[in-house]
Design goal:
Blueprint (H helix, E strand, L loop, with lengths): L1 E6 L11 H8 L4 E6 L12 E2 L9 E2 L1 H11 L4 E12 L2 H7 L4 E5 L9 H6 L2 H4 L3 E7 L9 H12 L10 H8 L15 E2 L2 E2 L9 H19 L1
Parallel strand pairs: 1-2, 1-6, 5-6, 5-7
Antiparallel strand pairs: 3-4, 8-9
Bound molecules: (phenylmethyl) 1~{H}-pyrazole-4-carboxylate (JF5).
(phenylmethyl) 1~{H}-pyrazole-4-carboxylate binds next to strand 5.
């Protein structure tokens, strides 16, 4: 999978080279390229934003600057993902879907966001015919300073589902087997008693069927309490 991320703060995305994703990149499973939107700026002042038509607070990111960046990266079979609090909710099934795609571009907006004509332009039939799909996603109902952290959340959730990226694929099949797909039961490790709190006895029983049943119940209780 090829992933391009476009941002005015490319250094903000350096954690993508660490840990699981760093190894996945070294192994050739994922290729992540971060691009500085400033490199595509227009005019002597290198600005990437301007005042909003219709008035109001803040600045809007220029469609001309964004298109210069996107035109250079867009190929056949690309999913363009625009991060915005107004987007569709990013969930585990969405991560599952994107994990089998060949090319993702993450557009990280700042200020009041990207001129909406970017979404409109790359959604047109001639792009659809080239299997270019445009999406707007939100990682949750809060406002961030920019799309950078939201894009890292999506990239981590998506890439760990690519075969070979996770060290232990058993945890993946377990994730997709329990009822909610990914809501977990409570976990315990040694010692069996800690600060006066015991590990539930069933987990020490060796009765695997009973343990599976107990865990399913606990996951259900947790979901009812928290969701
Ligand atoms: C952003 C305008 C983009 O704040 C977010 C966000 C929240 N949930 N998901 C994404 O993105 C940054 C802010 C304002 C455009």
């Amino acid at each position: 999978m090829k992933i391009d991320v476009i941002s005015i703060f490319p250094e903000y995305l350096s954690p993508l080279n660490l840990s699981l994703l760093g190894k996945a990149q070294s192994a050739g499973l994922v290729d992540i390229q971060v691009h500085n939107l400033r490199d595509y700026a227009i005019g002597v002042h290198g600005s990437v934003d301007d005042t909003p038509y219709g008035g109001g607070a803040g600045m809007v990111m220029s469609p001309e600057v964004w298109a210069k960046a996107l035109d250079s990266l867009m190929v056949e079979d690309t999913d363009l993902i625009i991060l915005t609090p107004a987007g569709k909710q990013f969930t585990q099934p969405v991560a599952q879907e994107f994990s089998s795609r060949s090319h993702l571009i993450f557009a990280c907006g700042r200020y009041e966001g990207i001129d909406d004509r970017i979404r409109q332009y790359y959604s047109q039939p001639e792009f659809q015919d080239r299997n270019i799909r445009v999406h707007e996603y939100s990682i949750g109902d809060y406002v961030l300073g920019g799309g950078e952290v939201a894009s890292m959340v999506m990239i981590e959730a998506i890439t760990r589902l690519i075969p070979g990226v996770l060290g232990n694929p058993e945890s993946l099949s377990e994730e997709s087997h329990n009822s909610e797909g990914y809501l977990e039961y409570p976990n315990y490790t040694k010692p069996a008693q800690w600060r006066g709190i015991d590990v539930p006895e069933i987990l020490l029983s060796g009765n695997h069927a009973a343990i599976a049943k107990w865990r399913a119940e606990q996951a259900q209780l947790r979901a009812e309490k928290n969701r």
